[in-house]
Amino acid sequence: MQYSERLEKGAVEMRSKGGENAKPDSQREIDRAVARALVLQARARGNLGEGEKAMALALRSYQVYPSGEAAQEAARWEAKAGRLADAIEHYAEAFSIPDARITDEDHRYYRKTLGELYTKLHGSEAGLGDLLLKAYDRTSQVVQAREELAQTARLNANKLDAFEFRLPGLRGDSVRLADFRGKVLVLDFWATWCGPCRFQHPLLERLKGKYKNDKEVVFLSINTDEDRPLVKPFIEELQWSDQVYFEDGLTQFYRIESIPTTMVFNKRGELTSRWPGFNPDHYVARLAEKIEEARRE
Fold it and tell me: How many structural domains are present in the chain?
């Protein structure tokens, strides 16, 4: 437990330092290290009799970096807790997802265990093949999304102009800041862990409502979370719009050290206003003023 916690802490510290460690390939290896540390913590917690904590850690590991090892660890403790349906789903993911740590022997074990659990729950293996196909489709999408994200980040890594960055969206789309040249562009950098962001959001939404019919002003919501799987459930819980884009190097490019940060660009793509944090008493009026100033420049 102590070893795995130190491993997680060290990997997270490397991720937060930026610089060379912010390069896409390094980032992926760091995410993999964090996920591995969480799997080890899950195994330790489970062996100590803390099954619920073990399941939570294994699922968190899968969110950070989806792997067969994380999926089977979650399935192991779900099965012990009697959650057979959940265990079957996660064993199917462990069976389907590419993972160098999963051996042929592991696959044989997953297949045997899947058959036993599925039969126990349904009386026979009828339908198990369909479940495995669905798991394969699901994990294939996860791997593809992970690779597309890494590829996008690689493309941004050598850009000298932030307006040429391509930012992936939560909906599966992407944008370039350059797509909005000729318009006043407002960037809102936020994170799920940021308390002030929750208070700023409704104020920003009020201002968006004021400009919703103004074709010359565009607002982009830029998420800065390291654990991106946290974003969708967060905005669903708070009923925020899912038109969110991930920063993919912008925070490092603009040396953003405080969240929230708001930036305003004029129609030529020049940064005209930037301020970290926000004052709830003056935020809407001040930002509206900066938008109008940028429009006139």
Answer: 2
